[in-house]
Protein: Orotidine 5'-phosphate decarboxylase
Amino acid sequence: MNKPVIVALDFADDFECINFLNQFPKDDEKLFLKIGLEMFCQFGYPFVRNLRERGYNIFLDLKLHDIPNTVKRTCEMIAQWDVQMLTVHATGGSEMIAAAKEGLAGSSTQLLAVTQLTSLGQSELANELQVPLESQDYVTHLAKLAYQNGADGVISSALEVPVIKAATSTDFLCVTPGIRPKSAQVGDQKRVATPAHARSLGSDAIVVGRPITQAENGHQAYVNICKEWNK
Ligand SMILES: O=c1ccn([C@@H]2O[C@H](COP(=O)(O)O)[C@@H](O)[C@H]2O)c(=O)[nH]1
Structure:
């Protein structure tokens, strides 16, 4: 599979979401869709199943963060759903990450650990979270923790991909949200990169929401981003 552009489906309404997906030609290469907390909390597993049955690849972005036993049991359930990717927070710690991986055993779901959210910049890290590290070092530390405890990859900004790969392995997946084409509004994201920059930094997949889902022509916006990403 080409390195994917993963579309973040952050819609309040499932009809709106299906109308959005219907803009895409049926013979398009299989779309990779991210279902996050907003849609999962409202529409739950039946929505995930519906999209899997339509043939989409699914990144289930639930960002699990709880004690190891709870995360393991939750992952055992999700392991039956045949989704391609699932997230937990790396800050849940080594035991929790390992427990998530154990819970997914026997499935092909890839476990990704969220490092520092792309909506948090250096000043939030220092002043709000009281982490006395540069983002690059904090993200690398969490990525190593995830790598050593069985995760298949991490969520980070594209800006940290080179240091993560150097500290772990070139095969360790770096999936990067916080993607903004040059003309797009940054909104609540802090650590951002264009699709072309993310590619040059070595991202394995980019996650793009509003620049596609809120565009006047969502399909065209997706095509433009794919072109820039695949250049
Ligand atoms: O660090 C993170 C982790 C997850 N996300 C998710 O990605 C998309 C980005 O959407 P945009 O509209 O392109 O900003 C969104 O669903 C987040 O929950 C992230 O942005 N940063």
